[in-house]
Write a structure and sequence with these properties.
Growth Hormone, Chain: A, about 400 residues, mainly alpha, 19 helices
Length: about 400
Amino acid sequence: MNIEKEVSKPIFKATLLAISLFIMMPSVISPALPLMEKAFPNIPRVTVELLTTIPNFGEIFGLLINPFLVKKIGRKKVILIGLALVGICGTLPVIVNSFWLIFILRILLGFGIGIYNSLAVSLIMMIYENNKTELNRLLGFQNIMNDVGYIASAFIICYLVTLSWHAVFLVYILAIPVFFMFEHFIKVPKKTKHSSGKHFSLSNIKQAFNSNIIYLSILTLLIYIFYMALAYKLPSFIVDFHLGNESMASLMLAVIAITGIPCGIAFNWLYIKLHQWVWVLCMVLNALGFYLISSARNTFVLVVGCIVLGAGFGIVMPYIFKSISLSVPDQLSNLATTLCLIMMDIGAVISPFVISIIAKNSDKALLSSAIFFGIITLIEVTRNMYANLKHKH
């Protein structure tokens, strides 16, 4: 079979990109949380909220075990196992009534995404390494597909949540046709000669985990603790303050994701214009967005808050990845990126516990996120001014 001919086919590219649809989908079921709290009255609210973020716990293990699985069974089989776990474990809560069984299935869903998450990018880089134009084009589409998967599923859940909390889990069944498409259409070429051979010594591990990377990883942890409050507090906030029903919550989460796409695309342009001050702009937008949402008592303010927050958060990960690339040599960027991704997952997992200590009510919880991003804004302004003064002298 001619691999070069195969990889140029539209169906090959579409299938390769389709696996990225599910990467951001674990938290999309959050609009069903108010209904699930009623269905499981003996389960503490913070534990029910954990259903939104506990897949990140599974993702950590998936991320860590990925290199061993790839070496043992190969990239294609790893991705197929991941898609199978997403399709089966993601959908099974439709017929399951045991809270703790659903809890375990959510962890397995995260594990499934975790084992192939990095392959969604690295496989494109491996297959199209000799065609830079196509490589850059597909990497751009891959990033957008993460958001498209979340947005599409959020719109589907707008309807499914009106049926029952069980029904929202049907969104994950979309992984099943993608599984069969990947099995049928994707032929993974042999590993290229220079894609291996990464040698990590103690000195370059220290290089990868320098002070900038440590700061970025701690910042990522804190950002996700406070940002993820949106996923599990927004639905109860909308219901508590009579701003709409669970469908409205799903719609607002989709609005945030949609707004983030053009901002993420415009990141390079913004960085060229504003340099490190783009991060200050990002934090200001996040703080303002959370404040407007937490103080919203009508739909107009809620929608404006969601648009502002989406614009701010659309810049977060592009800036962190850019900062990583500027802080370590190219051959160590993967190690530094993995650290930040693990910290992101840890932040998401512990978020419900941390936020429950800070605030019990949904509006106060969202306000605490606004205050956090406001504090980070002040810290970053101080750091930038100090760096500018140091540069002048």
